[in-house]
Amino acid sequence: MRKIILFIASSLDGYIARENGDVDWLPESGPSGYNDFYKSIDTVIMGKTTYDQVLTFGAYPYKDKKSYIFSRNNNFSKDENTKFVHDVEKLVKDVISNHGTNIWLVGGAEIISAFMNLNLVDKIILSVIPVVLGTGIPLFKNITKETKLELMKTTDYEKLVELHYKVLK
Question: What superfamily in CATH does domain 1-40+117-162 come from?
Answer without folding.
Answer: Dihydrofolate Reductase, subunit A (3.40.430.10)
